[in-house]
Amino acid sequence: MNKFDDKYALTGKFLVAMPKISDGDYFDHSLVYICSHGRNGAMGLIVNKRYESINFTDLTFQLPVRDFKRLNEVNLYVGGPLEKVRGMVIHSTDYFKEGTVEIGQGIAVSATSQIITDIAFDRGPSEKLVALGYSYWEPHQLEEEIYENDWLVVDANRRLLFNTPDEEKWQRAIDESGINLDHFVAITGHS
Fold it and tell me: Each residue of 163-191: b (16+ CB within 10 Å) or e?
């Protein structure tokens, strides 16, 4: 198995955007799944914001395959502000091919056109979240944002990731953490 061997503490965690993040586009009330965190920075995918303007069928038309089985529509998510044409899939580990990286807790990530083709032919993973674009932080940038109370780090779980309505994910992640956001101060101080 291809296991990510440069794991740091945040790989496989959720980042919950704190209320003070209100850019209106990407991170306002976002729930981000951290796919990798290491000495070269961090990469994650927003998992609670769907594209309304494009769908999975539109994505499959970018592939050289045309004769695929018509499926129930697979939602496409706004993974982040970078490379918005790059597709990545967070999925269950019942699907594992070359290019798949296991994160942990039965969750993996694939960023090949093969997984999109396999999903189109109903040969993909049983649980999946297809994202276009991704979120990236330079080395120490994410740690600084966490220190500044931009993000709340909480444990990730498959139920919240794959089986919770998108509009409920952000609040449920906070509720499951047991943290009351009313106790957070919007302005941080340093002594």
Answer: ebeeeebbebbbeeeeeeeeeeeeeeeee
Strand ranges, E, within 18-174: 31-38, 41-46, 76-78, 82-92, 100-104, 107-110, 128-137, 151-155
Structure tokens at 31: 């729930």
- The H or E element containing residue 15 is strand 13-17
Q: Provide the pairing of β-strand 13-17 with 76-78.
A: unpaired
Cα dihedral sign, 75-93-79-17: positive
| pLDDT one-digit tens code per residue, 104-150 | 899 999 988 888 888 877 888 999 999 988 999 999 999 999 999 89
35 sits in the region (left: phi over 0; alpha: psi -120 to 50; else beta) called alpha
CA proximity to 154, closest of 9, 25, 6: 9
What whole-number distance in Å separates Cα of residue 190 and Cα of residue 57? Answer: 50
What does the alpha-carbon distance between residue 83 and residue 22 come to, in Å, rounded to a whole number?
22
Q: How far is 110 from 128, CA to CA, in rounded Å?
A: 10
Residues 118, 9: contact at Cβ < 8 Å?
Answer: no
